[in-house]
Amino acid sequence: MAITLSGAQAIPGPPLSSRLTPAQVWGIVLLAPYLLVFLAFVVYPVCYGLWLARAPSNYVALYNDPIFARAAINTLIFLVIGINIKMLIALFLSGFFAQQRTWIKWLSVIFILPWAVPSIPTILSVRFMLNPEWGMINHYIFSLTGEDGPNWLNDPTVALTMAIAVHIWKSLPFWTLILITGRLAISHDLFEAAEVDGASWWQKFRYITWPSMQTLYVTCTLLSMIWTLGDFNSVYLLTGGGPADLTHVLATLGIRYLRLDQLSLAMASIVCAMPFVLPLVYFMMKRLSR
Amino acid sequence: MKLPSLREVGTEARLLLIGIPVFLWTMIPIYHMFLFAISPKEDAFSGKLWPDHPTLHNFEIVFKQQHYFLRDFYVQFWNSTVIAASVGVLTLFIATAAAFSISRLKVPGGRMVLNLALFTYFIPAAFLAVPMYRTMGNYGLLNNHWSLILAMVTIASPYAIWVLKQASDKLPVELDEAAVMDGATTLQIFRLVYLPLMMPSLVAIGTYAVLLAWNEYLYAFLLLSNDREITLPVALGNFLAADDSPWELLMTTGFIYALPPAAVYYAFRRYMVGGLTAGAVKS
Protein backbone atom coordinates (compact mmCIF):
# COMPACT_ATOMS: atom_id res chain seq x y z
CA MET A 1 0.00 0.00 0.00
CA ALA A 2 2.74 2.43 0.95
CA ILE A 3 4.48 1.78 -2.36
CA THR A 4 1.37 2.55 -4.38
CA LEU A 5 0.90 5.72 -2.38
CA SER A 6 4.36 7.20 -2.88
CA GLY A 7 4.34 6.03 -6.50
CA ALA A 8 1.12 7.87 -7.25
CA GLN A 9 2.46 11.13 -5.94
CA ALA A 10 6.06 11.00 -7.09
CA ILE A 11 6.01 9.61 -10.64
CA PRO A 12 2.84 10.59 -12.51
CA GLY A 13 4.21 9.05 -15.73
CA PRO A 14 2.17 7.45 -18.51
CA PRO A 15 2.49 3.83 -17.29
CA LEU A 16 0.99 4.72 -13.91
CA SER A 17 -1.87 6.89 -15.13
CA SER A 18 -2.86 4.17 -17.54
CA ARG A 19 -3.14 1.80 -14.59
CA LEU A 20 -4.91 4.18 -12.19
CA THR A 21 -8.25 5.72 -13.00
CA PRO A 22 -9.00 9.22 -11.64
CA ALA A 23 -11.34 7.61 -9.13
CA GLN A 24 -8.51 5.44 -7.85
CA VAL A 25 -6.20 8.44 -7.53
CA TRP A 26 -8.90 10.13 -5.45
CA GLY A 27 -9.22 6.93 -3.47
CA ILE A 28 -5.55 7.06 -2.53
CA VAL A 29 -5.73 10.77 -1.68
CA LEU A 30 -8.76 10.23 0.56
CA LEU A 31 -7.18 7.26 2.29
CA ALA A 32 -3.94 9.14 2.94
CA PRO A 33 -5.03 11.03 6.10
CA TYR A 34 -5.85 7.83 7.91
CA LEU A 35 -2.67 6.15 6.71
CA LEU A 36 -0.63 9.05 8.04
CA VAL A 37 -2.34 8.84 11.44
CA PHE A 38 -1.86 5.08 11.44
CA LEU A 39 1.84 5.29 10.60
CA ALA A 40 2.62 8.13 13.02
CA PHE A 41 0.55 7.02 16.02
CA VAL A 42 0.22 3.26 15.74
CA VAL A 43 3.09 1.78 13.69
CA TYR A 44 5.84 4.01 15.01
CA PRO A 45 4.85 3.77 18.72
CA VAL A 46 4.37 0.00 18.54
CA CYS A 47 7.73 -0.58 16.81
CA TYR A 48 9.49 1.82 19.14
CA GLY A 49 7.90 0.15 22.15
CA LEU A 50 8.91 -3.31 20.99
CA TRP A 51 12.44 -2.08 20.44
CA LEU A 52 12.52 -0.72 23.98
CA ALA A 53 11.31 -4.04 25.36
CA ARG A 54 13.84 -6.13 23.41
CA ALA A 55 16.34 -6.84 26.22
CA PRO A 56 15.78 -10.23 27.92
CA SER A 57 16.81 -8.67 31.24
CA ASN A 58 13.44 -6.87 31.29
CA TYR A 59 11.62 -10.17 31.35
CA VAL A 60 13.85 -11.48 34.10
CA ALA A 61 13.08 -8.34 36.12
CA LEU A 62 9.35 -8.83 35.52
CA TYR A 63 9.58 -12.47 36.51
CA ASN A 64 11.22 -11.46 39.77
CA ASP A 65 8.70 -8.72 40.51
CA PRO A 66 5.94 -10.16 42.75
CA ILE A 67 3.66 -7.27 41.75
CA PHE A 68 3.75 -8.47 38.14
CA ALA A 69 2.76 -12.03 39.06
CA ARG A 70 -0.04 -10.71 41.22
CA ALA A 71 -1.25 -8.38 38.46
CA ALA A 72 -1.28 -11.24 35.95
CA ILE A 73 -3.40 -13.37 38.30
CA ASN A 74 -5.72 -10.45 39.04
CA THR A 75 -6.16 -9.84 35.31
CA LEU A 76 -7.07 -13.49 34.77
CA ILE A 77 -9.63 -13.35 37.61
CA PHE A 78 -11.01 -10.12 36.19
CA LEU A 79 -11.41 -11.63 32.72
CA VAL A 80 -12.43 -15.19 33.41
CA ILE A 81 -14.72 -14.65 36.38
CA GLY A 82 -15.75 -10.99 36.03
CA ILE A 83 -16.56 -10.99 32.33
CA ASN A 84 -18.46 -14.27 32.41
CA ILE A 85 -20.59 -13.09 35.32
CA LYS A 86 -21.24 -9.84 33.47
CA MET A 87 -22.24 -11.56 30.23
CA LEU A 88 -24.53 -14.01 32.03
CA ILE A 89 -26.30 -11.12 33.74
CA ALA A 90 -26.50 -9.29 30.40
CA LEU A 91 -28.02 -12.38 28.76
CA PHE A 92 -30.56 -12.66 31.56
CA LEU A 93 -31.43 -8.95 31.52
CA SER A 94 -31.75 -8.90 27.73
CA GLY A 95 -34.68 -11.28 28.20
CA PHE A 96 -36.12 -9.01 30.86
CA PHE A 97 -35.82 -5.86 28.74
CA ALA A 98 -37.29 -7.60 25.69
CA GLN A 99 -40.63 -7.76 27.55
CA GLN A 100 -43.24 -5.41 26.13
CA ARG A 101 -44.15 -3.14 29.06
CA THR A 102 -44.20 0.63 29.27
CA TRP A 103 -42.40 0.71 32.59
CA ILE A 104 -39.71 -1.62 31.30
CA LYS A 105 -39.19 0.73 28.32
CA TRP A 106 -38.61 3.56 30.79
CA LEU A 107 -36.37 1.45 32.95
CA SER A 108 -34.23 0.62 29.92
CA VAL A 109 -33.77 4.35 29.29
CA ILE A 110 -32.49 4.79 32.86
CA PHE A 111 -30.51 1.55 32.72
CA ILE A 112 -28.24 2.94 30.00
CA LEU A 113 -27.07 5.84 32.23
CA PRO A 114 -23.88 4.19 33.59
CA TRP A 115 -22.66 3.74 30.04
CA ALA A 116 -23.69 7.25 28.95
CA VAL A 117 -21.97 9.16 31.76
CA PRO A 118 -18.19 9.39 32.13
CA SER A 119 -16.62 6.88 34.49
CA ILE A 120 -14.48 9.21 36.62
CA PRO A 121 -17.19 10.88 38.74
CA THR A 122 -19.27 7.73 39.16
CA ILE A 123 -16.32 5.52 40.12
CA LEU A 124 -15.17 8.15 42.61
CA SER A 125 -18.73 8.24 43.94
CA VAL A 126 -18.57 4.48 44.58
CA ARG A 127 -15.16 4.95 46.14
CA PHE A 128 -16.58 7.31 48.71
CA MET A 129 -19.57 5.06 49.37
CA LEU A 130 -17.05 2.36 50.33
CA ASN A 131 -15.11 4.67 52.65
CA PRO A 132 -14.94 2.77 55.97
CA GLU A 133 -15.46 5.84 58.19
CA TRP A 134 -17.63 8.23 56.22
CA GLY A 135 -19.14 6.09 53.46
CA MET A 136 -22.85 5.47 53.20
CA ILE A 137 -22.56 1.67 53.13
CA ASN A 138 -20.75 1.33 56.44
CA HIS A 139 -23.01 4.00 57.90
CA TYR A 140 -26.01 1.76 57.24
CA ILE A 141 -24.23 -1.40 58.33
CA PHE A 142 -23.55 0.35 61.64
CA SER A 143 -27.09 1.62 62.12
CA LEU A 144 -28.58 -1.78 61.26
CA THR A 145 -26.27 -4.10 63.17
CA GLY A 146 -24.44 -1.83 65.60
CA GLU A 147 -21.14 -3.21 64.30
CA ASP A 148 -18.49 -1.48 62.23
CA GLY A 149 -18.55 -2.49 58.57
CA PRO A 150 -15.53 -3.93 56.80
CA ASN A 151 -12.67 -1.77 55.58
CA TRP A 152 -13.69 -2.46 51.99
CA LEU A 153 -10.77 -1.25 49.95
CA ASN A 154 -8.10 -2.32 52.42
CA ASP A 155 -8.51 -6.03 51.75
CA PRO A 156 -7.08 -7.04 48.36
CA THR A 157 -9.73 -9.68 47.64
CA VAL A 158 -12.64 -7.40 48.54
CA ALA A 159 -11.04 -4.45 46.74
CA LEU A 160 -10.58 -6.44 43.53
CA THR A 161 -14.16 -7.72 43.79
CA MET A 162 -15.35 -4.14 44.12
CA ALA A 163 -13.30 -3.13 41.07
CA ILE A 164 -14.96 -5.93 39.10
CA ALA A 165 -18.36 -4.78 40.37
CA VAL A 166 -17.60 -1.24 39.20
CA HIS A 167 -16.57 -2.57 35.80
CA ILE A 168 -19.82 -4.54 35.56
CA TRP A 169 -21.83 -1.50 36.62
CA LYS A 170 -20.24 0.57 33.88
CA SER A 171 -20.33 -1.81 30.92
CA LEU A 172 -23.33 -4.05 31.63
CA PRO A 173 -25.79 -1.69 29.85
CA PHE A 174 -23.79 -1.76 26.62
CA TRP A 175 -23.64 -5.56 26.37
CA THR A 176 -27.25 -5.91 27.46
CA LEU A 177 -28.23 -3.54 24.65
CA ILE A 178 -26.32 -5.62 22.10
CA LEU A 179 -27.88 -8.86 23.34
CA ILE A 180 -31.35 -7.28 23.26
CA THR A 181 -30.93 -6.54 19.55
CA GLY A 182 -29.84 -10.15 19.07
CA ARG A 183 -32.89 -11.40 20.95
CA LEU A 184 -35.33 -9.17 19.07
CA ALA A 185 -34.00 -10.54 15.79
CA ILE A 186 -35.37 -14.00 16.60
CA SER A 187 -38.60 -14.69 14.73
CA HIS A 188 -41.61 -14.41 16.99
CA ASP A 189 -43.36 -17.29 15.22
CA LEU A 190 -40.95 -19.74 16.82
CA PHE A 191 -42.01 -18.70 20.30
CA GLU A 192 -45.69 -18.80 19.38
CA ALA A 193 -45.32 -22.30 17.99
CA ALA A 194 -43.49 -23.36 21.15
CA GLU A 195 -46.25 -21.79 23.23
CA VAL A 196 -48.85 -23.85 21.39
CA ASP A 197 -46.80 -27.00 22.01
CA GLY A 198 -46.75 -26.12 25.72
CA ALA A 199 -42.99 -25.55 25.99
CA SER A 200 -41.70 -24.43 29.38
CA TRP A 201 -39.68 -21.26 29.95
CA TRP A 202 -36.47 -23.27 30.08
CA GLN A 203 -37.28 -25.27 26.93
CA LYS A 204 -37.94 -22.06 24.99
CA PHE A 205 -34.60 -20.69 26.09
CA ARG A 206 -32.72 -23.94 25.49
CA TYR A 207 -34.14 -24.75 22.07
CA ILE A 208 -34.99 -21.36 20.53
CA THR A 209 -33.20 -18.44 22.20
CA TRP A 210 -29.81 -19.97 22.90
CA PRO A 211 -29.21 -21.61 19.47
CA SER A 212 -29.91 -18.31 17.70
CA MET A 213 -27.87 -16.24 20.13
CA GLN A 214 -24.86 -18.37 20.97
CA THR A 215 -22.61 -16.99 18.22
CA LEU A 216 -23.41 -13.43 19.23
CA TYR A 217 -22.94 -14.29 22.88
CA VAL A 218 -19.51 -15.85 22.37
CA THR A 219 -18.41 -12.96 20.14
CA CYS A 220 -19.50 -10.46 22.78
CA THR A 221 -17.74 -12.35 25.55
CA LEU A 222 -14.44 -12.48 23.66
CA LEU A 223 -14.68 -8.83 22.61
CA SER A 224 -15.44 -7.79 26.16
CA MET A 225 -12.44 -9.78 27.38
CA ILE A 226 -10.08 -8.01 24.97
CA TRP A 227 -11.40 -4.59 25.89
CA THR A 228 -11.41 -5.30 29.60
CA LEU A 229 -7.67 -5.93 29.38
CA GLY A 230 -7.47 -2.20 28.70
CA ASP A 231 -9.81 -1.21 31.52
CA PHE A 232 -7.61 1.15 33.46
CA ASN A 233 -10.26 3.28 35.18
CA SER A 234 -12.16 0.65 37.20
CA VAL A 235 -9.07 -0.39 39.10
CA TYR A 236 -7.03 2.79 39.13
CA LEU A 237 -9.78 5.15 40.25
CA LEU A 238 -11.23 2.78 42.83
CA THR A 239 -8.19 1.24 44.50
CA GLY A 240 -5.23 2.90 42.81
CA GLY A 241 -3.73 -0.61 42.66
CA GLY A 242 -3.60 -0.75 46.45
CA PRO A 243 -3.50 -1.90 49.14
CA ALA A 244 0.26 -2.52 48.81
CA ASP A 245 0.01 -2.87 44.98
CA LEU A 246 -2.00 -6.07 45.38
CA THR A 247 -4.96 -5.19 43.14
CA HIS A 248 -3.12 -4.11 39.99
CA VAL A 249 -4.17 -5.50 36.64
CA LEU A 250 -1.94 -5.41 33.55
CA ALA A 251 -3.46 -2.13 32.37
CA THR A 252 -2.65 -0.27 35.60
CA LEU A 253 0.67 -2.04 36.07
CA GLY A 254 1.98 -0.77 32.73
CA ILE A 255 1.09 2.78 33.72
CA ARG A 256 2.65 2.23 37.16
CA TYR A 257 5.99 1.27 35.59
CA LEU A 258 5.66 4.23 33.24
CA ARG A 259 5.21 6.61 36.15
CA LEU A 260 8.23 5.07 37.88
CA ASP A 261 10.16 5.88 34.71
CA GLN A 262 10.67 2.19 33.88
CA LEU A 263 9.41 2.40 30.33
CA SER A 264 11.11 -0.78 29.14
CA LEU A 265 9.48 -2.75 31.98
CA ALA A 266 6.12 -1.20 31.10
CA MET A 267 6.51 -2.32 27.49
CA ALA A 268 7.76 -5.75 28.54
CA SER A 269 4.69 -6.30 30.72
CA ILE A 270 2.50 -5.50 27.73
CA VAL A 271 4.50 -7.80 25.46
CA CYS A 272 3.90 -10.60 28.00
CA ALA A 273 0.15 -10.19 27.49
CA MET A 274 0.43 -10.50 23.70
CA PRO A 275 0.41 -14.32 23.50
CA PHE A 276 -3.09 -14.12 24.99
CA VAL A 277 -4.28 -10.99 23.21
CA LEU A 278 -3.18 -11.73 19.65
CA PRO A 279 -5.06 -15.04 19.22
CA LEU A 280 -8.21 -13.37 20.54
CA VAL A 281 -7.73 -10.41 18.19
CA TYR A 282 -7.07 -12.75 15.27
CA PHE A 283 -10.20 -14.72 16.06
CA MET A 284 -12.29 -11.55 16.34
CA MET A 285 -10.96 -10.18 13.07
CA LYS A 286 -11.77 -13.41 11.28
CA ARG A 287 -15.26 -13.19 12.65
CA LEU A 288 -15.93 -9.51 11.99
CA SER A 289 -14.21 -8.91 8.67
CA ARG A 290 -16.22 -11.48 6.77
CA MET B 1 -62.28 -3.25 32.50
CA LYS B 2 -61.12 -6.82 32.87
CA LEU B 3 -59.49 -7.76 36.14
CA PRO B 4 -55.98 -9.22 35.67
CA SER B 5 -55.81 -12.96 36.19
CA LEU B 6 -53.76 -14.48 38.95
CA ARG B 7 -51.18 -15.65 36.43
CA GLU B 8 -50.74 -12.12 35.03
CA VAL B 9 -50.27 -10.72 38.52
CA GLY B 10 -47.65 -13.38 39.17
CA THR B 11 -45.73 -12.51 35.99
CA GLU B 12 -45.86 -8.81 36.79
CA ALA B 13 -44.60 -9.44 40.33
CA ARG B 14 -41.70 -11.49 39.05
CA LEU B 15 -40.79 -8.77 36.56
CA LEU B 16 -40.87 -6.20 39.36
CA LEU B 17 -38.64 -8.45 41.43
CA ILE B 18 -36.02 -8.05 38.69
CA GLY B 19 -36.81 -4.45 37.80
CA ILE B 20 -36.48 -2.92 41.25
CA PRO B 21 -32.95 -4.27 41.97
CA VAL B 22 -31.88 -3.24 38.45
CA PHE B 23 -33.16 0.27 39.10
CA LEU B 24 -31.40 0.53 42.47
CA TRP B 25 -28.14 -0.94 41.16
CA THR B 26 -28.11 1.55 38.29
CA MET B 27 -29.08 4.65 40.21
CA ILE B 28 -27.30 4.39 43.57
CA PRO B 29 -23.83 5.60 42.47
CA ILE B 30 -25.39 8.38 40.39
CA TYR B 31 -27.80 9.40 43.12
CA HIS B 32 -24.95 9.37 45.63
CA MET B 33 -23.05 11.80 43.42
CA PHE B 34 -26.10 14.05 43.12
CA LEU B 35 -26.69 13.84 46.88
CA PHE B 36 -23.17 15.10 47.59
CA ALA B 37 -23.62 17.92 45.10
CA ILE B 38 -26.66 19.31 46.94
CA SER B 39 -25.41 18.65 50.49
CA PRO B 40 -23.40 20.90 52.78
CA LYS B 41 -20.23 19.12 53.91
CA GLU B 42 -21.64 18.00 57.32
CA ASP B 43 -24.72 16.42 55.72
CA ALA B 44 -22.74 14.70 53.00
CA PHE B 45 -20.51 12.93 55.50
CA SER B 46 -23.37 11.86 57.78
CA GLY B 47 -24.74 9.20 55.42
CA LYS B 48 -28.28 10.59 55.15
CA LEU B 49 -30.42 9.68 52.13
CA TRP B 50 -31.61 13.26 51.78
CA PRO B 51 -29.77 16.26 53.29
CA ASP B 52 -31.40 18.24 56.13
CA HIS B 53 -30.58 21.43 54.32
CA PRO B 54 -30.33 20.87 50.56
CA THR B 55 -28.38 23.67 48.96
CA LEU B 56 -26.91 24.83 45.68
CA HIS B 57 -23.98 26.38 47.51
CA ASN B 58 -21.53 23.79 46.10
CA PHE B 59 -22.47 24.78 42.56
CA GLU B 60 -21.90 28.41 43.49
CA ILE B 61 -18.39 27.60 44.74
CA VAL B 62 -17.61 25.70 41.54
CA PHE B 63 -18.99 28.35 39.20
CA LYS B 64 -17.19 31.13 41.08
CA GLN B 65 -14.00 29.03 41.24
CA GLN B 66 -13.79 29.66 44.99
CA HIS B 67 -11.56 26.73 45.92
CA TYR B 68 -7.92 25.86 45.42
CA PHE B 69 -8.80 22.78 43.33
CA LEU B 70 -11.26 24.75 41.22
CA ARG B 71 -9.26 27.82 40.36
CA ASP B 72 -8.98 26.84 36.69
CA PHE B 73 -12.44 25.29 36.33
CA TYR B 74 -13.53 27.34 33.29
CA VAL B 75 -10.22 26.90 31.49
CA GLN B 76 -10.41 23.14 32.03
CA PHE B 77 -14.04 22.99 30.92
CA TRP B 78 -13.05 24.88 27.79
CA ASN B 79 -10.10 22.54 27.19
CA SER B 80 -12.40 19.52 27.39
CA THR B 81 -14.85 21.15 24.99
CA VAL B 82 -12.25 22.16 22.41
CA ILE B 83 -10.53 18.78 22.50
CA ALA B 84 -13.80 16.82 22.22
CA ALA B 85 -15.00 18.99 19.33
CA SER B 86 -11.67 18.74 17.49
CA VAL B 87 -11.60 14.97 17.88
CA GLY B 88 -15.16 14.78 16.55
CA VAL B 89 -14.40 16.89 13.47
CA LEU B 90 -11.05 15.28 12.66
CA THR B 91 -12.35 11.73 13.15
CA LEU B 92 -15.34 12.41 10.92
CA PHE B 93 -13.10 13.88 8.23
CA ILE B 94 -10.52 11.09 8.29
CA ALA B 95 -12.98 8.24 8.66
CA THR B 96 -15.49 9.44 6.08
CA ALA B 97 -12.76 9.98 3.52
CA ALA B 98 -11.29 6.54 4.22
CA ALA B 99 -14.67 4.77 4.17
CA PHE B 100 -15.62 6.45 0.88
CA SER B 101 -12.29 5.50 -0.59
CA ILE B 102 -12.48 1.86 0.52
CA SER B 103 -16.16 1.20 -0.02
CA ARG B 104 -17.13 3.33 -3.04
CA LEU B 105 -13.88 3.88 -4.95
CA LYS B 106 -12.56 0.38 -4.23
CA VAL B 107 -9.06 1.73 -3.83
CA PRO B 108 -6.34 -0.96 -4.26
CA GLY B 109 -5.21 -2.15 -0.83
CA GLY B 110 -8.32 -0.79 0.85
CA ARG B 111 -9.20 -4.16 2.28
CA MET B 112 -5.79 -4.34 3.96
CA VAL B 113 -6.09 -0.85 5.45
CA LEU B 114 -9.47 -1.82 6.84
CA ASN B 115 -7.98 -4.91 8.47
CA LEU B 116 -5.15 -2.88 9.96
CA ALA B 117 -7.68 -0.41 11.34
CA LEU B 118 -9.73 -3.24 12.79
CA PHE B 119 -6.58 -4.64 14.39
CA THR B 120 -5.92 -1.29 16.08
CA TYR B 121 -9.50 -1.24 17.26
CA PHE B 122 -8.98 -4.50 19.14
CA ILE B 123 -5.70 -3.56 20.82
CA PRO B 124 -6.67 -2.46 24.35
CA ALA B 125 -6.31 1.31 24.64
CA ALA B 126 -4.32 1.14 27.89
CA PHE B 127 -1.66 -0.97 26.14
CA LEU B 128 -1.19 1.55 23.37
CA ALA B 129 -1.02 4.34 25.96
CA VAL B 130 2.47 3.42 27.14
CA PRO B 131 4.27 3.65 23.77
CA MET B 132 1.98 6.53 22.73
CA TYR B 133 3.17 8.57 25.70
CA ARG B 134 6.78 8.13 24.69
CA THR B 135 6.02 8.82 21.04
CA MET B 136 4.31 12.10 21.86
CA GLY B 137 7.40 13.00 23.85
CA ASN B 138 9.56 12.28 20.80
CA TYR B 139 7.32 14.44 18.65
CA GLY B 140 7.61 17.22 21.24
CA LEU B 141 3.83 17.31 21.73
CA LEU B 142 3.58 16.50 25.46
CA ASN B 143 1.52 19.06 27.38
CA ASN B 144 0.09 20.26 24.10
CA HIS B 145 -3.60 19.76 23.31
CA TRP B 146 -2.63 18.31 19.95
CA SER B 147 -1.13 15.27 21.64
CA LEU B 148 -4.48 14.33 23.19
CA ILE B 149 -6.46 15.25 20.07
CA LEU B 150 -4.26 13.12 17.81
CA ALA B 151 -4.19 10.23 20.27
CA MET B 152 -7.97 10.21 20.53
CA VAL B 153 -8.38 10.46 16.75
CA THR B 154 -6.08 7.45 16.45
CA ILE B 155 -8.27 5.50 18.85
CA ALA B 156 -11.63 6.65 17.46
CA SER B 157 -10.89 6.33 13.72
CA PRO B 158 -10.68 2.54 13.31
CA TYR B 159 -14.15 1.93 14.65
CA ALA B 160 -15.46 4.98 12.79
CA ILE B 161 -14.03 3.75 9.49
CA TRP B 162 -15.40 0.31 10.04
CA VAL B 163 -18.94 1.42 10.88
CA LEU B 164 -19.01 3.95 8.03
CA LYS B 165 -17.67 1.35 5.61
CA GLN B 166 -20.43 -1.07 6.63
CA ALA B 167 -23.03 1.66 6.19
CA SER B 168 -21.76 2.81 2.80
CA ASP B 169 -21.61 -0.75 1.48
CA LYS B 170 -25.38 -0.73 1.84
CA LEU B 171 -25.84 2.25 -0.51
CA PRO B 172 -26.76 0.98 -4.00
CA VAL B 173 -23.89 1.15 -6.45
CA GLU B 174 -26.33 2.39 -9.15
CA LEU B 175 -26.34 5.79 -7.42
CA ASP B 176 -22.67 6.34 -8.19
CA GLU B 177 -23.08 5.00 -11.71
CA ALA B 178 -26.01 7.33 -12.40
CA ALA B 179 -24.02 10.29 -11.09
CA VAL B 180 -21.04 9.36 -13.28
CA MET B 181 -23.36 9.16 -16.32
CA ASP B 182 -24.52 12.67 -15.54
CA GLY B 183 -20.88 13.74 -15.62
CA ALA B 184 -20.29 14.15 -11.89
CA THR B 185 -16.69 14.16 -10.72
CA THR B 186 -15.57 11.97 -7.83
CA LEU B 187 -15.60 14.91 -5.43
CA GLN B 188 -19.11 15.88 -6.52
CA ILE B 189 -20.33 12.35 -5.88
CA PHE B 190 -18.71 12.50 -2.44
CA ARG B 191 -20.25 15.84 -1.57
CA LEU B 192 -23.65 15.70 -3.25
CA VAL B 193 -24.56 12.00 -3.20
CA TYR B 194 -22.51 10.25 -0.55
CA LEU B 195 -22.49 12.68 2.39
CA PRO B 196 -26.25 13.40 2.44
CA LEU B 197 -27.10 9.70 2.31
CA MET B 198 -24.64 8.88 5.07
CA MET B 199 -25.95 11.56 7.44
CA PRO B 200 -27.45 9.24 10.11
CA SER B 201 -24.23 7.24 10.39
CA LEU B 202 -22.15 10.42 10.41
CA VAL B 203 -24.19 11.79 13.32
CA ALA B 204 -23.69 8.52 15.21
CA ILE B 205 -19.95 8.45 14.57
CA GLY B 206 -19.49 12.14 15.37
CA THR B 207 -21.29 11.64 18.67
CA TYR B 208 -19.22 8.55 19.39
CA ALA B 209 -15.93 10.38 18.83
CA VAL B 210 -16.98 13.45 20.83
CA LEU B 211 -18.12 11.35 23.80
CA LEU B 212 -15.00 9.19 23.65
CA ALA B 213 -12.77 12.26 23.83
CA TRP B 214 -14.82 14.05 26.46
CA ASN B 215 -14.83 10.97 28.72
CA GLU B 216 -11.19 9.99 28.28
CA TYR B 217 -9.17 9.92 31.46
CA LEU B 218 -6.06 7.76 30.97
CA TYR B 219 -4.61 9.46 27.88
CA ALA B 220 -5.52 12.90 29.17
CA PHE B 221 -3.70 12.38 32.42
CA LEU B 222 -0.63 10.91 30.76
CA LEU B 223 -0.29 13.48 27.99
CA LEU B 224 -1.31 16.71 29.77
CA SER B 225 -0.09 17.82 33.15
CA ASN B 226 -0.01 21.60 33.35
CA ASP B 227 -2.99 22.88 35.42
CA ARG B 228 -4.17 25.19 32.68
CA GLU B 229 -3.79 22.60 29.91
CA ILE B 230 -5.53 19.61 31.51
CA THR B 231 -9.11 18.53 30.86
CA LEU B 232 -11.84 18.23 33.48
CA PRO B 233 -11.45 14.49 34.23
CA VAL B 234 -7.75 14.99 35.01
CA ALA B 235 -8.67 17.89 37.29
CA LEU B 236 -11.16 15.59 39.05
CA GLY B 237 -8.45 12.98 39.52
CA ASN B 238 -6.18 15.64 40.99
CA PHE B 239 -8.69 16.25 43.79
CA LEU B 240 -7.53 12.94 45.25
CA ALA B 241 -4.01 14.21 45.74
CA ALA B 242 -5.00 15.88 49.03
CA ASP B 243 -5.76 13.87 52.17
CA ASP B 244 -8.75 16.05 53.07
CA SER B 245 -10.28 16.25 49.59
CA PRO B 246 -13.42 18.41 49.43
CA TRP B 247 -15.56 15.46 48.27
CA GLU B 248 -18.75 17.51 48.05
CA LEU B 249 -17.03 19.83 45.56
CA LEU B 250 -15.46 16.92 43.72
CA MET B 251 -18.90 15.34 43.28
CA THR B 252 -20.44 18.66 42.26
CA THR B 253 -17.80 19.21 39.59
CA GLY B 254 -18.17 15.59 38.53
CA PHE B 255 -21.91 16.05 38.22
CA ILE B 256 -21.48 19.13 36.02
CA TYR B 257 -18.90 17.23 33.96
CA ALA B 258 -21.23 14.24 33.51
CA LEU B 259 -24.24 16.26 32.36
CA PRO B 260 -23.17 17.20 28.78
CA PRO B 261 -22.32 13.64 27.64
CA ALA B 262 -25.53 12.29 29.17
CA ALA B 263 -27.53 15.03 27.39
CA VAL B 264 -25.73 14.40 24.09
CA TYR B 265 -26.26 10.68 24.42
CA TYR B 266 -29.99 11.01 25.01
CA ALA B 267 -30.39 13.62 22.29
CA PHE B 268 -28.75 11.34 19.71
CA ARG B 269 -29.89 8.04 21.14
CA ARG B 270 -31.97 7.29 18.07
CA TYR B 271 -28.85 7.44 15.91
CA MET B 272 -26.57 5.81 18.46
CA VAL B 273 -28.68 2.71 18.98
CA GLY B 274 -29.24 2.16 15.27
CA GLY B 275 -25.86 3.23 13.98
CA LEU B 276 -23.56 1.83 16.60
CA THR B 277 -25.07 -1.43 17.73
CA ALA B 278 -25.58 -2.52 14.15
CA GLY B 279 -21.86 -2.18 13.59
CA ALA B 280 -20.63 -3.00 17.06
CA VAL B 281 -21.22 -6.70 16.90
CA LYS B 282 -22.15 -8.45 13.73
CA SER B 283 -22.79 -12.09 14.47
Report on the architecture of this protein.
The complex is a heterodimer of chains A (290) and B (283). By secondary structure, chain A is mainly α. Chain A is 80% helix and 0% strand. The N terminus of chain A is likely disordered. In chain B, helix 4 runs parallel beside helix 7, helix 4 packs antiparallel against helix 9 and helix 9 packs across helix 13. The longest helix of chain B is centred in the first third of the chain and has 32 residues. Chain B is globular. Classes of the chains: A mainly alpha (290), B mainly alpha (283). Chains A and B meet through helix 3, helix 6, helix 7, helix 8 and helix 9 of A and helix 1, helix 4, helix 5, helix 6 and helix 7 of B.
Mean pLDDT of chain A, to the nearest integer, reads 86
Q: Provide the structure class of chain B.
A: mainly alpha
Query: Number of helix segments of chain B?
Result: 13
End-to-end span of chain B in angstroms?
44 Å
Percent range of helical residues of chain A: over 70%
- Which shape of chain A, going by the Cα principal axes? globular
Give the biggest sheet of chain B.
Answer: none
Radius of gyration of chain A: 25 Å
Measured by DSSP, the beta-strand proportion of chain A falls in under 5%
Write the H/E string of chain A, N to C. Answer: HHHHHHHHHHHHHHH
Secondary structure: number of strands of chain B: 0
Element pattern of chain B in H and E: HHHHHHHHHHHHH
**Averaged pLDDT of chain B:** 87
* Unreliable residue runs of chain A: 1-13
Largest sheet of chain A: none
Number of helices of chain A: 15
**For this entry, what is the oligomeric state of its chains?**
heterodimer
